[in-house]
Amino acid sequence: MDTRPQGNSSNDDLLVSWKDIAAYLKCSVRKAQRLERRDLPVRRIAGTKSIWASKAQIDRWLTVQAETARHTQPNVTTPPQTGIAGRAPLWLLGISIGLTVVAAIMSAYGLTIVFFGITAVFAVLAYPSFRHSIFTRTLVACFVIAGMSYCASATTLPDLVNSVVNMTTLRPALAYPFVAGLRFIPIPIMIGVLLVGLAFGDVGFAHRPRLRFAYSLLGMLLLLVAAIAGVTSGANRIWQDGLSIRWTLLAGESFVLGVNIALFVFGYHFLNRTSTRNYRQLVSWSGMAYLLIALTAAIVNRHWNEINKYYLDVRYPQAYRVQNNNVANDFRRWLKDHTAEAGTDLVAFFNDPEFLEVLQTQQFYKQDFDDAFREAVILGYKSERDSQRKERPTFVRIRFPASLATALRFQPVASIR
Question: In this structure, are residues 164 and 396 in contact, taking their beta carbons and an 8 Å threshold?
């Protein structure tokens, strides 16, 4: 029906040519004209070839189109395959998930990383047979985020386990690698939640300004938190002390942050459109960005392990001393009720008179690790044997059960009176 622009319409809300409409839709003029056949709200002025449209009406039309596409999608999809060919990916996915869980519980870090990768491949193959719902997408998002975090932090844990006394008995908490790696992947986490967990109807930021604002605010907040986490991890003390390794750490941490910033900007430009139906490009770029982050994180974590081995007092300057004057007897009494928490290497240390003297005379430094998840602490003292051999002194780090540390009465030096 031919109509004219209403007199009470705001000029800012009107589009008065096909070129304006195409620019607003971010498409070609020809495509905009084709969309008129799908009831795009375009009005024609009687007696002329002129047209006009309202931005508000176009926005409502886009929302209706997105909702219609989402509700009709299950009806046009091909039915899932049946038989062995269709069920094989699901069986393989279930087996690989089970192997991943078992490997993680057994602290087999290398195998867990491999199984995470295999499970991701099977998940991609089996995903078309899943029910397209928020619940399914959220489960996939949680699994992917957990895998990314684990693989970014677990690569250097075997070296840590082998270099700390009693660590093979009191292994790192199961949750630790899943949490420790989160600081490396703030933007992949956010993009994963947006793409897989929210399902915002394939409508881009151009017609969802609140979602665009949330993406920008949350992204900048996560980047700020990641930067603060890097500084508070002890990097500032390493820099102030002038250690030669500071430049390598700065380069690694800066590269990880830079990749996250680049992915944040790319994701913003990708999603800042009228419609976002094909996420393959964003997912592929996110995957490549994560590979760069994971490889760099492995190098950075290895350097942090070296710092803890040789410069534990620089990274964690708070010193502790044992206030128990009857260490040997109290350890034997403690051991009667806690044999499962003390490995043979820890028992051998307490049977060594030289170590008993160290407990009474030397300062210990506490390494932050998985204290929030497990009742155990890592305390280290500087080895005098290396100094006598004119070698770079190392810190002997010991995994003390929390109950043993309490029995020995470790206290901060500043609080001792």
Answer: no
Listing from the earlier edge strand, what are the strands of the sheet with 51-54? 14-15, 51-54, 42-44
CB atoms within 10 A of CB 413: 11
The answer to whether the beta carbons of residues 42 and 22 sit under 8 Å apart is: no
Distance set, CA 301 to CA 248, 249, 304, 399 (Å):
11, 9, 5, 19
CATH class of 11-76: mainly alpha
Reported as a single tens digit per residue, the pLDDT across 228-287 is 988 888 888 998 888 889 899 999 999 999 999 999 999 988 888 766 666 778 888 999
Say which residue the tokens 């508000």 belong to: 56
The span from the first CA to the last CA of the chain, in angstroms, equals 92
Query: Closest Cα to residue 161, out of 119, 107, 220, 215?
Result: 107
Closest CA to 153 of 119, 116, 124: 116
Please give the sequence-ordered ranges of beta strands (E in DSSP) within 323-367, or none if there are none: 364-367
Q: Which two tokens stand for residue 189?
A: 């986490």
180 close to 109: Cβ distance less than 8 angstroms? no
Q: Are 61 and 41 in contact (CB under 8 A)?
A: yes
Give 84's pLDDT tier (boundaries 50, 70, 90): very low
Q: At residue 206, does pLDDT exceed 50?
A: yes
Whether 410 contacts 320, CB under 8 Å: yes
Range list of H helices, 106-233: 109-126, 134-153, 157-163, 176-180, 186-192, 209-230
Residue 304 and residue 364: Cα distance in Å, rounded? 19
pTM, full prediction: 0.74
C-alpha span between 217 and 209 (Å, rounded): 12
Task: Give just the sign of the alpha carbon dihedral 96, 101, 102, 107.
Answer: positive
Which residues does 60 contact at the CB level (< 8 Å), separation at least 6?
A: 41
Contact by Cβ (8 Å): 319, 313: yes
Question: What's the CA gap between 23 and 29, in Å, rounded?
Answer: 8
